[in-house]
Write a structure and sequence with these properties.
This is Efflux RND transporter periplasmic adaptor subunit. With 387 residues, the chain is α+β, with helices and mostly antiparallel strands. The protein contains 4 helices and 22 strands. A 6-stranded antiparallel beta barrel has the order 2-11-14-13-12-15. β21 and β22 (381-386) form a beta hairpin. The longest helix has 34 residues, at 97-130.
């Protein structure tokens, strides 16, 4: 005999089974992802020598264009192209024969003028005696004296012509006017030079020491001057400002230089002033015309702040931006003002204070307002801080 409650119980168990199956089919709630981890560096002010990096080019202290000072045919090039020469070294030989002929002609002119001088001097002496006994008139004696003075002038002129001819003969041997490195020859043997113009033969450039001409904007100079006058920065006590040269491949030149002077005039087209520094170049590795950068030590900051270069980003307007982690463990964006580089770190002029934590790694994974897990490189341990 079946129980009246059995159908009801069966229906109840069936409903419970459907409910259990439905519950098993629903997806589990996802676990909350942990905050992204970033590495920060705490801002610690320290004494800094502020360095400004400027662009420029190397310049030879002395450049001489070797030119033909007399007309003639080039007989021989004596020097080796690209070599170092000393002042007075023979570089070219110009045909001396026509010039030697001019010297001999001038020598003959001197002898002729001296002979005429001898004759007029004797005549003058004779007339001086005759005028005393009224054998000749005073006018004739004075004319003889004038002829003697004219002959003296002719001798002086002839001797000057001889001197010029000898100088021209000496110019046939072209010598180096300065020490330095000489470039390629601009003429070859057989070329006619100096015909109506002083023909360029070669160029010599001094390489030791060498100058670096760099440009700095008047705005930067004005900011530095105001900071010094306001007491935020201190002037360097050194008699000369130290300079470091950065070569074209980005490596620093091993020998230090000094700043010589800054120009007095501002370039109207660029608003910049030229600064000249000097560097030793004993190995002749630095060549004029090379593009370089120069780092100048310009001031001292007792409470300077620097951040790694990788921590600084630029926005669309070109402004420098860093990300900091505030006291609540959230990322905030901060605009800063940088001024120069020191040991591969940006020198921060405005925008950061002591103790603030600047994100230096993990920037690509965070955005302003996000909570993060912080690791401070100041102590090198993970704080385990999850905010």
């Amino acid at each position: 005999m079946s129980s009246p409650f059995r159908p009801a119980c069966c229906r109840l168990f069936s409903c419970l089974g459907f409910l259990l199956l439905a519950a098993c089919g629903e997806p589990a709630a996802p676990e909350q992802a942990p905050p992204p981890a970033v590495t920060v560096e705490s801002v610690k002010p320290e004494a800094l020598t502020l360095t400004t990096e400027l662009n420029g080019r190397l310049v030879s202290p002395r450049t001489a264009e070797v030119r033909a000072r007399v007309a003639g045919i080039v007989l021989k090039r004596v020097y080796r192209e690209g070599s170092d020469v000393k002042q007075g070294d023979v570089l070219f030989l110009i045909d001396p024969e026509p010039l030697q002929a001019e010297v001999e002609s001038a020598q003959a002119g001197v002898k002729k003028a001296e002979a005429n001088l001898y004759q007029t001097r004797l005549q003058t002496e004779r007339y001086q005696e005759l005028v005393k006994i009224n054998a000749v008139s005073r006018q004739e004696a004075e004319n003889a004296r004038a002829g003697f003075l004219q002959s003296e002038a002719d001798v002086a002129s002839a001797r000057a012509t001889l001197k010029r001819a000898r100088l021209n003969l000496g110019y046939a041997t072209v010598t180096a006017p300065i020490h330095g490195r000489i470039g390629k020859a601009l003429v070859t043997e057989g070329a006619l030079v100096g015909q109506g113009d002083t023909t360029a033969l070669a160029t010599i450039q001094q390489l030791e020491p060498i100058y670096a001409d760099i440009n700095q904007s008047t705005r930067q100079i004005s900011q530095l001057r105001k900071a010094l006058q306001g007491g935020r920065l201190q002037a360097l006590a050194k008699p000369q400002i130290s300079a470091t040269l950065i070569q074209e491949d980005g490596t620093p030149y091993p020998l230090k230089g000094v700043l010589l002077f800054s120009d007095l005039a501002v370039d109207q087209s660029t608003g910049q002033i030229t600064l000249r520094s000097e560097f030793p170049n004993p190995q002749k590795l630095l060549l004029p015309g090379s593009f370089i950068r120069v780092q100048l030590d310009q001031a001292h900051d007792a409470d300077g702040i620097t951040v790694p270069q990788r921590a600084v980003q630029r926005d669309a307007a070109g402004k420098a931006i860093v990300l900091i982690v505030d006291a609540q463990g959230k990322v905030q964006e901060r605009e800063i003002e940088v001024n120069g580089v020191k040991d591969h770190r940006w020198v921060v002029q405005n925008g950061l204070s002591a103790g603030e934590r600047v994100v230096i790694e993990g920037l690509q994974h965070v955005q302003p307002g996000m909570a993060v897990t912080v690791q401070d490189v100041g102590n090198g341990t993970d704080s385990g801080e999850q905010r």
